[in-house]
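Re: [help] complex structure
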Amino acid sequence: MLKRVLVIVGAGAILGFAWNQWSGRGFELRANALVLPGDEEIKPAEAKKRLDKGALFLDVRPGLNYEIGHIPGALSYPLEKFDEMFPAMEPRLRDSMDIVVYCAGFGCDASHMAARKLKEKSIPAVVLQEGWPAWTDAGYPTKEGKQP
Amino acid sequence: MDGRRLPDERGQAALNLLRHRVVLYLIGLTLGGIFLYAAYDKILHPRDFAKIVYHYRLIGPSQTIDPALANTLAVTLPWVEALTGLLLVTGLWRREAALVAALMLVMFLVAVGWAMAHGIDLANCGCFSVKAGEEGSGRALGWKLLAGDTAMLAAAVWLVVARPAPAPETAP
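Output below.
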């Protein structure tokens, strides 16, 4: 019985790898599935350096998450309100030489989507890899409330 | 006697019914159909399924866990589901396929329980569709989901342990 169980699991795995390789629907297994060609990610240590140098941080999580805790100086710019808020945000965004976008990490692709939307408008932005949890895990400063 | 069966006789009759070849086949057919359906969307959209696996926060990716682990699960699990479903539907290697189904369901119950215990809010469990909310028919985490999976686990375990009842003897 065990042998047949292993055959089922093994055959399923082989089919899965083959499909991923040759179906045209697969993706690079060693890369984060959230990251598409053209996306740029930075690690928390690099983000901290940029924060200290005055980079503009955008928190694209829902507003309530921002109030609970955010990176000091970051602006709340929820992805679902991207288009609605863009006219008011645009001057600030275009003035910034360095923009870092982050979201809730763990499969949250809001930051990647926001960075892509900004790039479509010719505003370069990078994504904080693994987002907010990576920042807090690194022990970097955080702030509560609605104010940046 | 008076024609009524004793309770243990009734229990034995119910057990024999559940062990009937046709009943076992129907359980396998239903369970296999569910597994085939569950695999379909994930096979078509492996990248989207990988994103859902990330949401569970069990096997990364994180600063310490490489995305390859979650990605490997995302591309292989749907095909194991599909193969298991196919075997259950056809009745080939039914006990072995049911054991694989039971193991996957235990794994899934642990993942859902873990996510619920840690307050992870998933709009889509990744059970049948890789699109959530308005985009698709994703099922959210919750007790209803756990109950449904437990029922499927019971069915899979029954297929593993049940021996088909012998055919009734016919009078000469």
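The interface with chain A takes residues 43-47, 50-55, 57, 61-63, 66-68, 71-72, 74-84, 87, 93, 95-97, 99-100, 120 of chain B (CB under 8 Å).
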